[in-house]
Design goal:
Structural class: alpha/beta
Shape: globular
Number of helices: 7
CATH class: Alpha Beta
Order of helices and strands: EEHEHEHEHHEEHHE
Strand order of the largest sheet: 1-7-8-6-5-2-3-4
Distance between the termini: 33 Å
Strand content: 15-25%
Low-confidence stretches: none
Radius of gyration: 18 Å
CATH superfamily: LmbE-like
CATH topology: Rossmann fold
Number of strands: 8
Length: about 260
């Protein structure tokens, strides 16, 4: 994997900042695959431990009325197969209702619990800000994921007195170093990952979610075009593909405790 940061914008330098564990949050099964499966495939190939947390069961998704009774189990199975294609087997669910996700304390407590259990170097999450150029990226559940995760990272995950029942169960406070956000406004994106070598793995993972694709050809064309556009925005050579993120330093060398 080759990271390419827009000069003087991204605080993350892959030559300096090592990543050993990553915890990824998404609203629905398939969100991670569209947003970051190429980067994740590269991470796992390099030995990085990657875990997923899907906040809803995706019960409002799909297009076939005949699948309604089995849609939750179907989408969970799709996510497991898609995750395996990019080297991920550790998948957690919060089992919130699709379309009803809110950044409330039940959700935030679940996020903090996972962060303290896994203690990741990078938390990867959907973005809390709406993308007005492509509103479909900003499903209300997507925005709720971003807000819940951001609130959970600071201050709750690193505050030993937040959700005290977690500390009482042995889950001690943890300071997250990095937050990588995907599916947000383009003007926020400051870090690009060259995933040219992972394009087919990403597309294979997306294709697994067959219950969500009424027009497979249009979907694949849009995804490929988006990756090429990201590479162009990053200044990569022609013929490359990239994924884009808004990278935020949460706890770095210049972070002052309590601020």
């Amino acid at each position: 994997m080759t990271d390419h940061a827009v000069p003087a914008q991204s605080p993350f330098n892959p030559a300096i900042h090592q990543v050993g564990r990553v915890l990824c949050f998404a609203a629905h099964p398939d969100d991670i695959d569209f947003g970051a499966a190429g980067t994740i495939a590269a991470w796992t190939a390099a030995g990085v431990q990657v875990s997923y947390c899907i906040m809803t069961d995706g019960d409002a998704g799909g297009f076939d009325p005949a699948q309604r009774a089995e849609i939750i189990a179907l989408r969970a199975a799709e996510q497991e197969r898609a995750a395996a294609l990019v080297g991920v087997t550790d998948i957690h669910y919060l089992h919130e209702r699709d379309g009803f996700l809110e950044p409330n304390h039940q959700v935030m407590s679940g996020v903090v619990k996972l962060i303290r259990e896994i203690r990741p170097d990078v938390v990867l999450s959907m973005h809390p800000e709406r993308n007005w150029n492509r509103i479909q990226k900003s499903h209300p559940d997507h925005l709720a994921v971003g807000e819940a995760v951001t609130r959970a990272i600071y201050p709750a995950a690193e505050n030993p007195y937040a959700y005290p029942e977690l500390a009482e169960s042995g889950l001690q406070a943890y300071k997250v170093p990095w937050l990588w956000l995907y599916a947000g406004p383009e003007e926020r994106e400051n870090h690009f990952v060259d995933i040219t070598g992972q394009v087919e793995s990403k597309l294979q993972a997306i294709h697994v979610h067959v219950s969500q694709h009424p027009d497979v050809e249009a979907m694949e064309s849009a995804v490929r075009s988006g990756m090429v556009l990201n590479a162009r925005r990053a200044g990569l050579p022609g013929g490359r593909s990239a994924e884009a993120f808004h990278v935020v330093t949460i706890n770095g060398p210049r972070t002052i405790a309590g601020f």
